[in-house]
Design goal:
heterodimer, A: mainly alpha, MetI-like fold, 14 helices, about 75% helix, globular, disordered N terminus, B: mainly alpha, 2 domains, 11 helices
Chain lengths: ~325, ~300
């Protein structure tokens, strides 16, 4: 095919060409199909508008009854009780604490795995190891929740911290397991960034007498920093949005504490709990779900915006 | 370590290099490499421990009775039949919704869209952003629009529509990649022979994009099978059913929801049923992933 095109005769002049390519008649069928395809693509925009509208509607109704200050600064969260209070800080701090624990686990392990894959592993071992990470990423979150409550708490945390130290539900097991869950995100995205660093940079450093460790730490890692940060941020927003592990392993008691051995309820866990309670449409309990959902949406949006800025700031462009 | 191949230089001797690296430096280098390897090994270890834990817990109940029995409050008779049927109903519906829409959107973006137009760039940006929205937020959307406003309740349709919106960006992205892999010369050739754009899409682009799209779609569907959180919210509490769905508007539960239901019960016996249910879920996912890999290896063309 290509060779045929390459050896063709010198073509007609541009003027002739544009005349011959002029449409003979409008092809209505073609146009109709194009519009249909366009509509399919526009559907994704409608989804976003739908998300914003659904969140906005319930949230506005919520703030007609509850003050913004009471919501954002209150320290007691009992919205589903009769005469409850609506301070979001307990569930927000739980979300942040559990995500922080997850990042402490996932950031070094994910980055370490990425560095090994890109700088040390041979082609063959990479072919075996990368699918393992993909399998880890493909396991449903409800399974990770089961793992947290049936293995991590009884067989890891209790022997390590003492038998009576942690209850069945605790933030630590949820944080650790969410950490495992986001390792593949950091590992695979960071590995892409590290592998994209030109080989010449490694060769140059090695030629100047640097050891492989130095090349990995002082040359490759700084050069790929923007991609590595982006992977961290994506993992962070995934951790904030993670629901099932938090529901199953951290429990449903909303309390304002920083002790990870305590049970606590995250924002996502509250949304799940409030939704399964079958609240009547338009009730305050129903609207609370949307207010928390909007806050969660804004939080992940903020994280993503910050990441785009960070990436721009640290980006180094080669060739 | 395995042998280096291709153009990568052999670095095994590099640390000794020109004799510059001292012994302590070499030891530190080995320690560093070992540490990184440990990071990766940790992931593998967790996977092994997780699977062992699930199989050890679930094996006593991993039998035909599990899929024959309906969910029950009595652990000895508790099964997952309605959840299995629900999952099948939901996934088939999701496939019917997302495949045509996803392929259509991908064909538009790759073959028709003028990238200099603002609305086309907005669509692209939007699809990327949608892929990063937490899945619970899709659940809220499903609850507000499909469950309540449209009045579908906690039905197959509500669950399927919610999951469809969730996986549509994934289907679009994988189909676009499949289309992008087709060389421009194929399009040029077809157009030069007098085919219209639509004929080119139908006879050249789509047939050649099938393997890539199939692989990506199966992976997207397996993501949908494993999701629990958005369904929990969109279906709003319908998590215990002893009837199989009979049409799109009948109430439904799915495997991950039923597993969640069993996990969250305090009795130890239910944990066994949950683990057995997880084994079934993982087996389905394994089958789907294996199919995807098979299709990729068998039909993918290298240009």
């Amino acid at each position: 095919m290509t060779s045929l095109l390459a050896h063709r005769e010198p073509g007609p002049s541009t003027a002739e060409l544009s005349r011959s390519l002029r449409k003979s008649s409008p092809r209505w069928g073609e146009r109709a199909v194009e519009s249909l395809l366009f509509l399919a693509a526009v559907l994704s925009v409608l989804t976003t508008i739908g998300i914003v509208l659904s969140l906005l509607d319930g949230t506005l109704a919520f703030f007609r009854e509850i003050g913004v200050g009471e919501f954002l600064l209150g320290t007691v969260w009992t919205p589903l009780f009769a005469d409850g209070s609506f301070g979001v800080l307990p569930i927000m701090s739980a979300t942040l604490l559990i995500t922080a624990i997850a990042m402490v686990v996932a950031a070094p392990l994910g980055l370490g795995a990425a560095l090994y894959l890109s700088e040390y592993a041979g082609t063959r071992s990479r072919k075996i190891l990368k699918p393992v990470l993909e399998v880890l990423a493909g396991i449903p979150t409800v399974v990770y929740g089961f793992f947290a409550i049936s293995f991590v708490t009884p067989s890891v945390l209790r022997p390590l911290l003492g038998e009576g130290s942690v209850g069945i539900f605790n933030a630590l097991s949820a944080g650790l397991v969410i950490g495992v869950l986001i390792i593949p995100i950091i590992a695979s995205l960071s590995e892409d960034a590290l592998s994209a660093v030109p080989q010449a940079m490694r060769d140059g450093a090695l030629a100047l007498g640097a050891t492989r460790t130095k090349v990995a730490r002082k040359v490759v890692l700084p050069a790929a920093l923007s991609g590595v940060i982006a992977s961290f941020v994506l993992a962070l927003s995934r951790g904030i949005g993670e629901t099932m592990v938090a529901v199953i392993a951290a429990g449903s008691i909303a309390q304002l504490t920083l002790d990870p051995r305590e049970p606590m309820q995250t924002m996502t866990a509250f949304i799940a709990q409030a939704a399964s309670g079958d609240q009547p449409t338009g009730s305050l309990g129903y609207n609370t779900l949307f207010a928390v959902g909007a806050l969660l949406f804004l939080l992940t949006l903020l994280v993503n915006v910050v990441s785009i800025r960070l990436v721009r700031r640290f980006r180094e462009v080669y060739e | 370590m395995t042998a280096q191949t291709g153009l990568q230089p052999d670095l095994r001797g590099a640390d000794r290099g020109l004799g510059r690296a001292r012994g302590s430096e070499r030891a530190a280098g080995r320690l560093f490499q070992g540490l990184l390897m440990g990071c990766l090994a940790f992931g593998v270890l967790v996977l092994v421990v997780l699977l062992t834990d699930v199989i050890r817990d679930g094996l006593p109940r991993f039998n035909l009775d599990l899929v024959r029995n309906m969910p029950s409050g009595r652990p000895a008779r508790a099964g997952i039949q309605s959840a299995m049927m629900g999952t099948i109903w939901v996934i088939v519906t999701v496939a019917v919704i997302t495949l045509p829409l996803g392929v259509a959107a991908a064909v538009y973006l790759e073959e028709y869209a003028d990238k200099t137009r603002w609305y086309n760039r907005a669509i692209e940006l939007n699809i990327q952003n949608l892929a990063a929205v937490p899945s619970v937020v899709y659940g809220i959307l499903g609850l507000a629009f499909f469950n309540r406003a449209a009045g579908f309740g906690g039905s197959v349709l509500t669950i399927a529509l919610t999951l469809s919106l969730l996986v549509l960006p994934i289907v679009i992205i994988s189909c676009r990649e499949a289309i992008r892999a087709i060389p421009t010369s194929i399009r040029d050739g077809s157009l030069a022979l007098g085919a219209t754009r639509l004929q080119t899409v139908r006879r050249q682009i789509l047939p050649n994009a099938i393997p890539g799209t199939a692989t990506g779609s199966i992976l997207a569907l397996s993501r949908a099978i494993g999701e629990a959180a958005p369904i929990l919210i969109a279906a709003s509490g319908i998590i215990f059913l002893t009837r199989n769905p009979t049409d799109l508007l009948s109430q439904a539960t799915v495997l991950p929801i039923q597993i969640f239901n069993y996990v969250s019960r305090p009795q130890e016996e239910f944990r066994v049923v949950a683990a057995a249910g997880i084994m079934v879920l993982l087996l389905i996912l394994l089958l789907m992933n294996a199919t995807a890999i098979l299709i990729r290896n068998k039909y993918q063309r290298k240009w």
